[in-house]
Amino acid sequence: MSEEPTGAAEVPTPAVAAAPADPAQPQTEEPANDPQTEEPAKDPWSDPRLPWEGKPRRVDVACWAAITCSGLYYLALLPFRASLVGTHPIVSVLLNGSTEAIVSAAAFASKGHGSLVVLLLASIPGLMKFDIIYWWAGRLWGERVIMLFSGRGKRSAKFVARVNHSGRWLTWPAVVLSPFLPIPNALIYAAAGWTGMNWLTFLILDAIGSLAWAGMLAGLGYALGQSAIDVAQQISKYGLWVSIGIVIVVVVAQMRGARAQR
Question: Angle between the 185-194 and 143-150 helix axes, to the nearest 10 degrees?
């Protein structure tokens, strides 16, 4: 008689299947960064109010600083501009090159106080001292600085197009006639630099125009004589109040210009 096995047969246990994911729970996978969808970082130097493109070079900073200093120079002279007209007109011509100073100096020369030759020689640096800076700006930045100086309007675009079309046939006579033209001189000087006029030619043409302008004003002052001297002395007498009035006009004009740009 055979014996039955006393141990129970081992039943194999099936493998436990992984629990399905709960569709109610959101996936926590991080989205992949797509470089095409990311916005590029804004260039801090990309400003239409600046005449250069990208990061400025040393020469850009130097030219821009020279333009700024020229403006500060004229602002610093404002308190003395009126007082010098009737007392030291030649000094005023040399420092400022203003119209009233040239007329006053010629009027004094007509009465034996001063010389027309000295007046004309002083008018050259007085009128030209900062002109080369704007020529340099045109050479460095071209059309951008012209648009910046002129306000980026329709007239500015027409002026740029005319300069592009005419070149030196426009800029050469324009530099000579710039004191007589109703156009900001900075635009003409920058256009001369932009179109490739060399610095020596620019200085010669600028000197011719400055002498022509000073000669015309000197002739007017010489013809007016004592009457021009009397007016100049009255201006110097009330020079402080005249200077305050000029400062107020300049500040108001700057504030209105800033508001218009906004």
Answer: 170
* Whole-angstrom distance, CA of residue 194 vs CA of residue 197: 8
Indicate whether 171 pLDDT > 50. Answer: yes
pLDDT tens-digit readout, 92-102: 999 999 888 99
Residue 43 located in a structural domain? no
> Which pLDDT value is given to residue 204?
96
Would you state the structure tokens that stand for residue 100, as one six-digit string?
């009233």
Determine, yes or no, domain membership for 35.
no
DSSP 155-198: HHHHHHHHHHHHTHHHHHHHHHHGGGSSS-HHHHHHHHHHTT--
Domain membership flag for residue 47: no
Contact 188, 175 (CB under 8 A): yes
Q: pTM for the complete prediction?
A: 0.73
Structure tokens at 246: 């000029």
Q: In this structure, what token pair is assigned to residue 204?
A: 């010669």
Q: Which domain holds residue 194?
A: 58-261
State the total domains in the chain. Answer: 1
What size, in residues, is the chain? Answer: 262
DSSP assignment string, 77-141:
HHHHHHHHHTT-HHHHHHHT--HHHHHHHHHHHHTTSS-HHHHHHHHHHHHHTTHHHHHHHHHHH
2 within some domain: no
CA angle at residue 131 from 175 to 184, to 5 degrees?
60
Are the CB atoms for 146 and 174 separated by under 8 Å?
A: no
Q: 């071209």: which residue's tokens? A: 142
Residue 177 identity = L
Q: Residue 106: what pLDDT?
A: 93
- Whole-angstrom distance, CA of residue 68 vs CA of residue 125: 19
